[in-house]
Amino acid sequence: MRAEEQSEVLLSQTPAPVSWEHEVQEIEARRKRALRMGGEQAVERQHAKGKWDVRKRLYNLLDAGSFEEIGGLTGVADESQGELGSSFIPSNVVTGIGQINARDVAVAADDYTVGHGTPNEASSAKRTHIEELASELRMPLIRIVDMAGASLKSIEDRGYTMLPGAKWDWLSILSQVPVVSIASGPSPGLGAWRVAASHFSVQVKGIGQVFAAGPPIVAAGMNQILTAEELGGSDVHAGHSGVVDNLAMDEADALQQAQRFLSYLPPSVHDLPSRLSTLDDPNRREDSLLTAIPRNVRKVYNSRRIFNAVFDQDSVFEIGRNWGRSSVVGFARLDGYPVGFIGNDPKFYGGGMDDAAAEKLTRHIDLCDTFHLPVVNLADQPGTLIGLEAEKRGTIRRGLRVLAAVEQASIPWYTVVVRRLFGVGGAAYGPSRRLDNRIAWPSARWGPMPIEGGVDALYKSDIEQAVDPDARRRELEEQFAALGSPLRTAERFGINDVIDPRDTRPILCRWVRRAYGTLEAGVRERTVRP
């Protein structure tokens, strides 16, 4: 037989190439099935509760077409079923990488339509993986929480109980990348932990509930009959406890707040915040600042108008407005540079620091220090709250935590004293052991205690014995008010300068440019205090 003929015989005996087409079709079928989440009826039930499904949440959160799912084939299936993908039930958490304003972010979004949101080992493994990925790849993490609590069914399936505790390194990630959590549904137990263990959290009004244990367990253990909303709704946490930072009126609002929060921060601690272009003149002088502070110290004013006049137009983003209300904190921009700001609202306790306000200040200073945002303090701090209830709540100790946060921070700091600094609370206006930029408005007053209370304490008998006690009190207050002029302190360089309030923005815009020249990226020795 000729060689050519032998070759043809051998080729005819070679088996046809093996095709993996069937398996590829199964993969694609499962991916399509995963997009249907818990099925049509389960999704309809989700929508009937006024809640978006997980895919709509991701669609509205991320840049169009940017989502790359990780673990999309995680779930369970009966492989004996003949139809492609027919028995596949996806995991009840969707994870992956997407973009917000062309910047990479990692996301872990719960899907309550699958298994009523009950956690399992696979969903826990996906959450752990995406958090490790966010830390390793140095990108922000967003958690959308909408899940059930632990179930006795998981104990039955496992056949034994486990010691309580989280297997994910929630503390370490807080020192590495920005973490945002959104309570878009029930967030019991571990879900509450995931909401609270973040740099910024948002709770959706009416549908997001955060609690350590749900109503049935609370009823059995505490004999308290409460609805989920009464136990852990937005009035409880975003409006009182501070476990959640901000309230969102709906899911679109919550996602927008998450997007805006991240716009001020770098992707990780290994980067610096980015400057944005702005049309706002850095030398803008607002005449409204000249009349912003009343001459009568007992009159309140709108401190937020001052923030909006000083910082770049439309750049102020407040955090925690509805709790710790005597303190005001947030992010803003000066000539396009992101900064953190702190201040006071005299409409609550005269701006005095209660325990909740102290906690809010401590967390915000730590946040700014972790992610290298310089801080501007527009200070009007009459001191820590006084009285029996304040003493019972440990306000003094919490005020000391604010002092510790200020001293431990390493970021550039600038204080503008707009009205008062008194007592321990007033002492937390800025660092004492490193460069302390501090200027004052003519309306500023400071000291160990307010003149009004001090006069009554020191000259009690003098006032009582006077023919006209009220007139004598006013005479003494005026005498000490003259001694308290900021110009007297400036004469001895106890304050760097006393300025025309209208010059505040130009001064701060010049400072922030120089401050950014000193910033260094990297991990702080001290991380955020949860």
UniProtKB/TrEMBL annotation:
<protein>
    <recommendedName>
        <fullName>Methylmalonyl-CoA carboxyltransferase</fullName>
    </recommendedName>
</protein>
<dbReference type="Pfam" id="PF01039">
    <property type="entry name" value="Carboxyl_trans"/>
</dbReference>
<feature type="domain" description="CoA carboxyltransferase C-terminal">
    <location>
        <begin position="285"/>
        <end position="530"/>
    </location>
</feature>
<dbReference type="InterPro" id="IPR011763">
    <property type="entry name" value="COA_CT_C"/>
</dbReference>
<dbReference type="InterPro" id="IPR011762">
    <property type="entry name" value="COA_CT_N"/>
</dbReference>
<dbReference type="InterPro" id="IPR034733">
    <property type="entry name" value="AcCoA_carboxyl_beta"/>
</dbReference>
<dbReference type="InterPro" id="IPR029045">
    <property type="entry name" value="ClpP/crotonase-like_dom_sf"/>
</dbReference>
<dbReference type="InterPro" id="IPR051047">
    <property type="entry name" value="AccD/PCCB"/>
</dbReference>
<feature type="domain" description="CoA carboxyltransferase N-terminal">
    <location>
        <begin position="20"/>
        <end position="277"/>
    </location>
</feature>
